[in-house]
Specification:
It is built from seven helices and five strands, in the order H-H-H-H-H-E-E-E-E-H-E-H. The protein is an alpha+beta fold and 252 residues long. The radius of gyration is 18 Å and the shape is globular. It starts with 5 loop residues before the first helix and ends with a helix.
Length: 252
């Protein structure tokens, strides 16, 4: 695991999110989430935080049978930012009284309570970025945090087929894609095999069929579909068909 305090980062990212949207028009469209308004975005983020918090409180040991949670959603969308802030406060209180190293069911690679804190962080961060983009701001993500988000995304994507079915098509005859940060965040080699795909823990320095280089923040936004690979902020080399295949089937 990284030395980042994911719980503290959830609080910080939520505070940035709330500050961005508190005075904004809830009916404003969110281009990076087609069909959603700013109100929809905030409602989604707060709902996810509350659901993950309940999972942590229950320390579930098997897949949940229901997503029903008492959201206590305000009637007026203009009250959603305060409601989101309250969700983060409840999450923080749960983090503080939970052994985050305790075994727990999770849909991803890390079968411990800490999985849900880290997942909540990047759900919140990416949607904070969505809100800022909708408001015409230029989002910033700290390099260390972004690199952790890239690692979290690529580690868990092979387990996401039940809600991202296109990932089942990420197969190949031992093809490799390298994602490399230009600001010291790290590099990650993903191998596509006949039976699936995943990170190669020994892939540093190995030959890749295609390489994508950018800042850690831009790699994170690229992987989440918030930045196009043709952007001038992204450097690509190698097999373009392989990259096209990856980005057509890796949406989260």
């Amino acid at each position: 695991m990284t030395p980042l305090d994911h719980g503290a980062a959830v609080a910080a990212e939520t505070a940035r999110f709330v500050a961005a949207v508190r005075q904004a028009d809830a009916a404003l469209p969110v281009p990076s989430c087609p069909g959603w308004t700013l109100g929809d975005l905030v409602r989604h983020a707060g709902s996810v935080q509350r659901w993950f918090t309940v999972l942590l409180q229950q320390r579930i040991q098997e897949p949940p049978r229901s997503r029903d949670v008492d959201l206590r959603l305000p009637e007026r969308p203009e009250d959603y930012p305060s409601w989101l802030a309250q969700a983060a406060e409840e999450a923080a209180a749960t983090f503080a009284r939970t052994d985050l190293d305790a075994p727990m069911w999770a849909w991803g690679a890390d079968q411990h309570a800490r999985f849900w804190v880290r997942r909540m962080l990047f759900e919140t961060l990416v949607h904070r970025v969505d809100a800022e983009l909708a408001l015409g701001a230029e989002p910033a993500v700290e390099p260390e945090l972004a690199a952790d988000g890239v690692a979290e995304f690529l580690t868990n994507l092979p387990f996401a087929a039940f809600f991202a079915p296109a990932t089942a098509e990420l197969r190949g005859d031992d093809r490799a894609i390298r994602f490399s940060s230009v600001d010291g965040g790290g590099e990650w080699l993903v191998r596509l095999r006949a039976d699936g795909f995943g990170l190669d823990p020994d892939g540093v320095g190995a030959t890749a069929d295609a390489t994508v280089r950018a800042t850690a923040a831009d790699l994170l936004l690229l992987l989440y579909g918030r930045l196009d690979r043709t952007s001038e902020r992204v450097e690509r080399s190698g097999d373009e068909d392989l990259l096209a295949h990856w980005f057509a089937h890796s949406s989260f």
